[in-house]
Each structure stands twice: as C-alpha cells, then as structure tokens.
Design a protein that fits this description.
mainly alpha; 85 residues; 4 helices
Length: 85
C-alpha cells in the first residue's frame, strides 16, 4: 500500500521530467538511425507531453501546494481539474 505524503512534491518532480523528455527525446525521433516505424513519430509517441507539463506547472502544482496539511483538499483538487484535461 502506498501513502501519499506530499503530492505537490511529486508533481514538482514530475514536471521537469516531462520537459526533459520532450526537449531531449522528441528531437531524436527524426534521426535516420532509428527504426523506420518510429522515425518522425514524435507527435504520436509523446503526444501532448508538453501540454501536460504546462498544466502541471501552471495550474495543478499550485493547487496541490495549497493542500498542505489537509489531505481532503487533494481529492477536491483532482476533481476540480477533471474536466480541464
């Protein structure tokens, strides 16, 4: 069983990882030495990764940070953003 201690911290770590993947792996998709079925398929493979990172950094993370000390607010934060994504 997992225990969520600080969801804001997890989201704060996740956003830079998303940006790193988009900035470093997406450009590699055009290389000629990768398998043909993968070549130039960055949009398919990474989809909306950059959009998700923007959402996390500009909206979701901020709302999670406001939940410090009140775990019930975390659930409300997820519910608030269900229709946004």
């Amino acid at each position: 069983m997992y225990e969520v201690r600080n969801p804001a911290q997890g989201s704060a770590l996740f956003t830079p990882f998303q940006r790193f993947c988009f900035q470093n792996y997406f450009p590699e998709m055009g290389r000629l030495d990768i398998p043909q079925p993968l070549r130039c398929k960055g949009n398919v493979i990474f989809g909306n990764l950059e959009k998700i990172a923007d959402f996390h950094s500009h909206y979701f993370l901020r709302d999670l940070e406001e939940c410090q000390g009140d775990p019930m607010l975390v659930a409300k934060t997820f519910q608030k953003h269900v229709s946004v994504t």
